[in-house]
Amino acid sequence: MILWLRILMVAAGLFGASGVAAAAVSAHLVGGASLATAATFLMIHAAALAGLCALALHIGRGRTALLVGASAIAVGTILFSGDLALRALMEIKLLWGTAPTGGSLMIAGWLVAAFGGARLARR
């Protein structure tokens, strides 16, 4: 369980750093709206992952659902923001449907996290 939390926290840190960098690049160099959107999603979900991990450390029932939801959010963010960033910066399109698949995974992850939140119980 602790390894899972560590991986998610590393992802949160990388998302935050990447989001700030992408926002700077879109504001000062290239990328425009697509890169700015990717940056926004990276930063929002960095904070969300950190919060879900912090909550998971202090609960018993509902922890697994929170971590599964956070994992889906992480994978979805990588797919969605990665696709937008590659299109904006390198004019490379990932596999067909990568951004919509990533968006769907983020939505599903939030719903699973909500389910875990509804089951919260202290250890």
**Poorly predicted runs:** none
Q: How many extended strands?
A: 0
Helix percentage: over 70%
Compute the average pLDDT. Answer: 92
Please explain how this structure is put together.
InterPro entries: DUF423. It holds the Pfam family DUF423. The chain crosses the membrane at residues 33-57, 64-82, 102-121. Helix 1 packs antiparallel against helix 2 (32-57) and helix 1 (2-28) packs parallel to helix 3. By secondary structure, the chain is an all-alpha fold. 83% of the residues lie in helices and 0% in strands. The protein has one domain (2-118). The longest helix has 28 residues, at 63-90. The protein has 4 helices and no strands. The model has no long low-confidence stretch (mean pLDDT 92).
Detail the topology: elements first, then pairings.
Layout lengths: L1 H27 L3 H26 L5 H28 L7 H21 L5
Kindly summarize this structure in a few lines.
83% of the residues lie in helices and 0% in strands.
Index terms:
123 residues, mainly alpha, 83% helix, transmembrane helix
